Amino acid sequence: MTTAEITTMQEEIRALAQEREAVILAHNYQVPEVQDVADFVGDSLGLSREAASTGAGSIVFCGVHFMAETAAILSPDKTVLIPDLDAGCSLAASITADQLRAWKAENPGAVVVSYVNTTAEVKAESDYCCTSGNAKAIIESIPADTEILFLPDMYLGLWLEKVTGRTLRIWMGECHVHAGIRPRDIVTPASLRNALTVAIAMGGSTNVALHSVEIARAAGIDLWKDVLSQKEFNALSRRVPVLVNARPFGVYSMVDVDAKGGLQVIVKELLDAGLLEEGEQRISLTLRGRLLSNELFARLV
Asked: Are 92 and 64 in contact (CB under 8 A)?
């Protein structure tokens, strides 16, 4: 579809949503064209909370099945629609209610803590439903002599064991997409160079230079060999203008950045000046999978 056709479709969708008194939610993983037409963009639980607080009678959830179920739980009096009933989550699908009931029967007296990425049926069989943000506090609130069954994300479960010191019985579930992501898929030479450029424009930071070396190493990249040499780094430092001073002072931090209009304004100036890499090969994307220029256009217009 052309840009004009996409824009026309988005306008039609917004008009129809207004006519039907519906709120449109788009998960962070949705493509930019879907996110741009949504009233709210974010994580699954946050979106459901936003929808519950609105006066809309209907919720259109652009996400996977368990997300729409969560919205229905928080908004029982609202109609919840999902564009694709077959849109599933491999993590949520890694355990069924029957499997959980069997697991509970094998471990009588254990407390069940379920991650929010589960079906409504599984949530109904759980004692606690947590997010990644409050999981640690929930685990720590359970008496130390109580056995805990944690599901379905084994990676979150292993992390919780590490940070709480508790031994958990962990369901061996995972999201097959996340499990296949490696640092090199996210951290690229271009993204590292861009990060250094932005840091220089914000007054420079020894920590940024030091941390960039380690971040690059975790992705299998040698910063001073694969990204730029130390001589090139010094030249970059001289070429990039200092747009703001991000030093913290007083009771607030990054005051000058806020006065400038925020990070997006700084990035736009650097992009317009040709100091940030983007390229036709999509070598440096934002977390939403967009080119920097597309992201900035959506945020600044």
From this structure: yes
Question: The CATH number of 92-179 is which of 3.40.1000.10, 3.40.50.2300, 3.40.50.10800, 3.40.190.10?
Answer: 3.40.50.10800
Interatomic CA distance for residues 2 and 59, integer angstroms:
28
**Residue 184 above 60 pLDDT?**
yes
Lowest mean pLDDT: which of 66-75, 100-109, 155-164, 177-186? 177-186
- The 10s digit of each residue's pLDDT in 199-246 is 888 887 777 778 889 989 988 999 999 999 989 989 998 999 988 877
Choose among 256, 196, 184, 177: nearest CA to 221. 184
Find all residues with CB under 8 Å of 114, minimum gap 6, and list them: 122, 123, 126, 128, 129, 130, 151, 152
State the pTM of this model: 0.66
**Which CATH number does 3-81 carry?**
3.40.50.10800
User: Can you say whether residue 279 is alpha, beta or left, with left for phi > 0 and alpha for psi between -120 and 50 degrees?
Assistant: left
Q: Which two tokens stand for residue 74?
A: 């928080």
